[in-house]
UniProtKB/TrEMBL annotation:
Keywords: ATP-binding, Nucleotide-binding, Transport
An example molecular function term from Gene Ontology annotations: ATP binding
Signal peptide segment: none
CDD domains: ABC_DR_subfamily_A (cd03230)
Transmembrane segments: none
Family designation: Belongs to the ABC transporter superfamily.
Any Pfam family hit: ABC_tran
Listed Gene3D superfamilies: P-loop containing nucleotide triphosphate hydrolases
Organism this protein belongs to: Bosea vaviloviae
Keyword Electron transport among UniProt keywords: no
Keyword Nucleotide-binding: yes
Annotated ABC transporter domain residues: 20-249
Lineage: Bacteria, Pseudomonadati, Pseudomonadota, Alphaproteobacteria, Hyphomicrobiales
Protein name stated in the entry: Multidrug ABC transporter ATP-binding protein
Amino acid sequence: MSQITPSHIAPSRITASPIISVSGLTKTYASGFQALKSVDLDIRKGEIFALLGPNGAGKTTLISIICGLVNPTTGAVQADGHDIVTDYRAARAAIGLVPQELTTDAFETVRATVGFSRGLFGKRKDAGLVEQVLKDLSLWDKRDSQIRTLSGGMKRRVMIAKALAHEPRILFLDEPTAGVDVELRQDMWQLVRRLRDNGVTIILTTHYIEEAEEMADRVGVISKGEIILVEDKVELMRKLGRKQLTLTLQAPLAELPPTLSSFDLALSGDGEELTYTYDTKAERTGITTLLQALSEAGIRFSDLRTSQSSLEDIFVSLVRDRP
């Protein structure tokens, strides 16, 4: 189905060789504000890379420099083997950008604006490719509608169609599902996976942590202009994730007995649940010792369950712990 990907790219797995390479990148604005501080980052061909960070962390500046919209102060960036400064045209042609803001001609039709976007990159007219892009984004029925008549979600799809019109190898999605309903968000996730499966590298910035958790192969966290972590998502969850064991008590407790003070325990407000947090990296979880201590203290429970910390928990703790 997914012919919206570049015709010269065959489906492939993620490769170790980077399609984007950032080295020593800094950006200091005229006001003296340093938005980026010596950023080094490689993004692998064929992966979905989620870039997370709080507002003002430097996400937009980093993307804007890679896409050639903002000049770096120092450092170098290569996109698909092309330097973004000395070989700007070739580098930019490899990149599709879907900005957060919905900016397009309100009185233009969907088909015309997507076709025009292709022409901006010097590509020959290709009605068949434009048709396929619109069909894969569920926009074909709206092809002759003016942009101003579309819903916010449909306008977002048009922005993606414009970014794909020149068959880029790299696609930046800056908050692609902001303000989009849940159903449309799921549709976009499926589209992103299809693109990735056909060789397009996706760089995603999002405030929806579950979006990164659902889709990303790797996660990068940026804070105060610095990349503080880049890790495979599964490995990140394993290394930094915590698990919790929650015990439903047969009888409520007013307070924890002193004999349990050595355990990382939290008593619920109603005294009916105990939650034990433990490190997944530790050789021993301490659960067996805890259960024995509970028995010796005469505390009985009727049910237990475990839960894993989410990517959001990890992200918040990483940013919070930065000086």
